[in-house]
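thought: user wants a sequence for this fold. calling inverse folding tool.
action: design(structure=
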């Protein structure tokens, strides 16, 4: 009888219905149907790693093209001071690009047509140093300048693509389809053209200026590239610059106008100004010295040599201790 009943039961009900009848509902199932939950098409999971690229595309590419076609204000162009293409991004890049992005998006909301073309500086010492770091066990002196430039170009190209991808992941609003690189031949040709214009206008000239040289990198350095360790101490040298006859006469006239009762100045036949410097190699191109308007100067006499010096009164004690001499004012 039981077998017959089971067969009839299977004929009238599906396996899922039979399973439901034979299984006791769990505590969660009991209360699930009593909740009045909203019905939505939004996904239950964020899936940020899948959805974020699409959102970023809308925030950058789609928005950038849209504003250039629909904003009715004037064009707002922000010139991008290019970063070096010599490695991965760091906090300096983040600060730089974020401030620019805030400015561009503000101008966009004000109705401007924003034009921002990102670029990269592909020349310079930072890239050369990075390129040489990749040559493990290779003697640099055996490489020609052309070979070093080719290696540096490859380093710059690789770093550029990495930085570009990360900038886009940051959501920086820009025309990422049109970027500029200083190593592009067209860009270099434009630079030569601008330099030619400067020469024609007489803005380029030859003069005297110290050039810093790095023995380790075998290249010239800009002043901004100089770095000194905290423990560095530069040796200083004190030098006397003799007054010309004309300069001494002008000084005597000036002192008499300021203090007519001072007759000692007229007795001086020779005078030298004392200076000090930590870059003595620049002395050969030195053409003049400067004085401070708010600094008090005194003329001192060295009894042992009978030489007269012009020096700041606040430095007289220090100068005396260095030379181990006592001077008469």
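)
observation: tool returned 329 residues.
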């Amino acid at each position: 009888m039981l077998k017959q009943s089971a067969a009839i039961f299977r004929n009238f009900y599906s396996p899922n219905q039979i399973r439901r009848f034979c299984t006791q509902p769990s505590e969660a199932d009991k209360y699930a149907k009593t909740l009045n939950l909203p019905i939505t098409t939004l996904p239950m999971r964020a899936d940020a790693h899948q959805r974020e690229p699409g959102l970023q595309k809308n925030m950058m590419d789609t928005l950038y093209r849209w504003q250039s076609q629909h904003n009715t204000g004037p064009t707002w162009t922000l010139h991008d001071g290019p970063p070096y293409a010599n490695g991965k991004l760091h906090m300096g890049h983040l600060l730089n690009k974020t401030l620019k992005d805030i400015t561009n998006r503000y101008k966009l909301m004000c109705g401007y047509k924003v034009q921002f073309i990102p670029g990269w500086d592909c020349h310079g010492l930072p890239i050369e140093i990075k390129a040489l770091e990749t040559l493990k066990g290779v003697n640099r002196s055996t490489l020609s300048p052309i070979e070093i430039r080719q290696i540096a170009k490859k380093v710059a190209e690789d770093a550029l693509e990495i930085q570009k991808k990360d900038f886009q992941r940051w959501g920086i609003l820009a025309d990422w389809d049109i970027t500029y690189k200083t190593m592009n031949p067209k860009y270099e040709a434009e630079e030569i053209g601008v330099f030619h214009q400067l020469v024609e206008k007489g803005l380029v000239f030859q003069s005297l200026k110290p050039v810093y040289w790095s023995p380790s990198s075998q290249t010239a350095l800009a002043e901004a590239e100089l770095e000194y360790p905290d423990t560095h101490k530069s040796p200083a040298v004190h030098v006397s610059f003799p007054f010309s006859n004309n300069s001494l006469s002008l000084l005597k006239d000036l002192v008499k106008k300021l203090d007519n009762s001072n007759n000692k100045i007229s007795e001086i036949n020779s005078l030298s100004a004392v200076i000090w410097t930590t870059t003595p190699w620049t002395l050969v191109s030195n053409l003049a010295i400067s004085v401070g308007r708010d600094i008090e100067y005194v003329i001192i006499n060295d009894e042992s040599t009978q030489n007269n010096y012009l020096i700041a009164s606040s430095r007289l004690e220090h100068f005396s201790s260095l030379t181990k001499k006592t001077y008469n004012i």
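thought: summarizing for user.
answer: Here is the designed sequence. The beta strands are 75-77, 113-115, 119-120, 180-181, 212-214, 219-221, 237-242, 272-277, 297-302, 307-312.
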